[in-house]
Amino acid sequence: MLELLxxxxxxxSDERIKVIAATNRADILDPALMRSGRLDxxxxxxxxxxxxxxxxxxxxxxxMNVHPDVNFEELARSTDDFNxxxxxxxxxxxxxxxxxxxxxx
Length: 105
Known about the structure:
mainly alpha; elongated; single chain; 105 residues; Helicase, Ruva Protein, domain 3
């Protein structure tokens, strides 16, 4: 961490250089990292809304043979606090389970 802080402090003020960092655990960042002149601007991307989750699930399952009775809105309601990557993983896992089940029948 000390090396990162030193590197950030070593940048000269040049408008052409932007340092971007990402984390899914902003709550455990060292406050020294977020002080003015280092990473002093924070942009949060909240979890998708229920409507957005339903759409994300549809997008990630569009190339799958999905049964017409699948209710994406209901699935979205049961995936509160899921991010896009987690929703994609749900679709991938559902596809894998379907393949395994079909292979054993």
